[in-house]
Specification:
Elements (H helix, E strand, L loop, with lengths): L1 H6 L17 H23 L5 H7 L3 H32 L4 H16 L2 H9 L1 H4 L2 E5 L6 E6 H4 L2 H27 L2 H9 L4 H31 L12 H12 L2 H30 L47
Helix pairs in contact: 3-13, 4-5, 4-9, 4-12, 5-9, 6-9, 9-11, 10-11, 11-13, 12-13
Length: about 325
């Protein structure tokens, strides 16, 4: 009853206007059309005999397919871990006061962003042809202390993840740089005033705040890396998921069912990665989310929730929402 009195409901107001909501048939019609199209699509996928669903179920958990999934995940994880480490180093080098470090970082990003990843993978596959022996000695002389055959070090698997990681590092470094530059310079100045060195400032002040901006595009790059592993046949590396399904399709002369098998596993892994990305975004976004404010921060147990209001305050006012709030990440 108290709520009705405050909000004006139940009060005898003469000539009260009974406003009716405007009818909007557009969204309903659009929803019906979308549902019909989705039903037609599902019906076509189920009843189309050319998709050959029995073959899909037969090879969905084939041992070669499962082994291809394992190698695909290994390539994705190793490549992304190496790429993230390199990208942080390259981004810091781009912001360095040393012109040599800035130049090296710029050249790396320019080269690996400017050439196709498929071409880079072919070069890594030919590494042993270009450099037959890896040796350690005195530069510009024939003195060698240690040497090894390149084929022993740069195997097909190693060439695959090295090529993917170096290419990805060039793209991620720009993402990391954008995240670092988005942090308020006052944070760094305050940390310097407290006597913190540059390394500690970067590790404890700047990077934790930049992660909120870095995580979303990095998640997209990780999902992209999962699918880019299908290009490692250029090395050639022939144990990942796409090649495994193609090999089975060529053997049984049924490419479409095996393409569906590959699509299923890629979609499943991508869905899991999207969930992980959302959790990471929520974790690093703590303290930045908008939240209601009130004089006491208390809520009456008898009234429905009203953001920004405490006991005794009028409930028919406009909700008061914080602007983006920074909490817990200061020096």
């Amino acid at each position: 009853m108290a709520k009705k009195e405050v909000d004006g409901e139940g009060v005898n107001i003469p000539n009260r206007i009974k406003a009716l909501p405007v009818k909007r048939p557009g969204p309903i019609v659009a929803a019906v059309i979308v549902v019909l199209l989705a039903a037609m699509l599902i019906q076509g996928l189920i009843t189309n005999p050319r998709l050959d669903w029995p073959t899909v179920w037969k090879y969905l958990f084939n041992e070669n397919v499962l082994e291809g999934i394992r190698y695909t995940l290994e390539l994705t994880v190793i490549s992304m871990v190496v790429a993230i480490i390199l990208s942080v180093i390259l981004a810091i080098m781009r912001k360095s006061i040393n012109p040599v470090l800035r130049g090296v970082s710029w050249f790396f990003i320019w080269f690996f962003r400017g050439t196709p990843v498929y071409t880079q993978l072919i070069f890594w596959g030919l590494f042993a042809v270009l450099i037959p022996k890896i040796s350690l000695g005195i530069p510009f002389t024939s003195v060698e202390f240690w040497s090894i055959d390149s084929n022993v070090v740069v195997t097909a698997f190693n060439a695959a993840w090295i090529g993917l990681a170096l290419n990805e590092a060039a793209y991620l470094s720009e993402i990391v740089r954008a995240g670092l530059e988005a942090v308020d310079p006052g944070q760094t100045e305050a940390a310097k005033a407290l006597g913190m060195n540059r390394t500690l400032i970067m590790r404890r002040i700047v990077l934790p705040q930049a992660m909120r901006i870095i995580i979303p595009p990095t998640g997209n790059e990780t999902i992209g890396m999962l699918k880019t592993t299908s290009l490692v046949t250029a090395v050639p590396f022939t144990l990942e998921l796409q090649f495994a399904t193609n090999a089975i399709a060529n053997r049984i002369y049924k490419p479409i069912p095996l393409l569906l098998v590959a699509c299923f596993w890629y979609l499943l892994i991508t869905s899991i990665l999207m969930v992980v990305q959302s959790r990471l975004e929520a974790h690093f976004g703590k303290g930045f989310n908008a939240r209601p404010v009130g004089t006491k921060g208390k809520q009456s147990p008898y009234d429905p929730p009203y953001p920004g209001k405490s006991d005794g305050e009028p409930k028919d006012d406009v909700n008061k929402i914080n602007q983006t709030t920074f909490a817990g990440l200061n020096a």
